[in-house]
Amino acid sequence: MRASQVLLLPGWQGSDAAHWQSLWALAHGYQRVEQHDWRLALRGDWIARLEEVLLSIDTEHDGPAVLVAHGLGCQLVAAWAAHSRQTHRVKAALLVAPMDVAQEALQAVLPSWSGVPLRALPFRSVLLASRDDPRCTFERARQYAGHWACGCVDAGEGAHLARPGSLGGPDTWPEGQRHLAELMAYQPTVSV
């Protein structure tokens, strides 16, 4: 699998230089999906941008992509998968620290994200959530995992799982890399 087939999906306000997603992009050459506006996060715009990037990947030659989402990027994966006819272009997804967009404080600043589809994702996925995330309780993250039909990993206490220093590694978050490697190596069964 080519590094450019691993698509990093930052959350609301993007991922700064100290975020594990930015460090992974630098260290491994993974492709960051840039949104037109990180602060005014319009769901339709974000979905269209993800679709555009996925359509640019030569899946016939290189195979399907792996999505690596953080925060609001997790809801982006669910919203995109519920509406796209291109889900075959994705092999798997690593979903990290989803945002609970139903929180009153977030509804006011992210109104287009209410009602994100809560249905099974059509590709393998695993969700990592911490027990002390201010943007999503662990119980709510488990509910998302159940609705999206993905595995749920208890990442302990790591707040919003953004800074490598709080994630058990000095710079690149080894636990997250291990889960990503498993998803990259996953070979879906092909029905004949």
Low-confidence stretches: none
Q: Roughly how much helix do the residues carry, as a percent range?
A: 25-40%
Shape: globular
Number of separate strands: 6
* Beta-strand proportion: 15-25%
| Structural class assignment | alpha/beta
The average pLDDT score comes to 90
Instruction: List the helices and strands in order.
Output: EHEHHEHEHEHEH
CATH topology: Rossmann fold
CATH architectural type? 3-Layer(aba) Sandwich
| Largest sheet properties | 6 strands, parallel
Number of domains: 1
Question: What's the name of the CATH homologous superfamily?
Answer: Alpha/Beta hydrolase fold, catalytic domain
**What's the tally of helices?**
7
- Compute the CA-based radius of gyration: 15 Å
Quaternary organisation = single chain
Structure overview:
The protein has helices at residues 20-28, 43-55, 59-62, 72-83, 104-109, 138-148, 174-185; strands spanning 6-9, 31-32, 65-70, 90-96, 124-129, 151-154. α4 (72-83) links the parallel β3 and β4. The protein has 192 residues and is an alpha/beta fold. It has a six-stranded parallel beta sheet, with helices on both faces. The protein has one domain: Rossmann fold (3-Layer(aba) Sandwich). The model has no long low-confidence stretch (mean pLDDT 90). Helices cover 35% and strands 15% of the residues. It contains seven helices and six strands; from the N terminus they run βαβααβαβαβαβα.
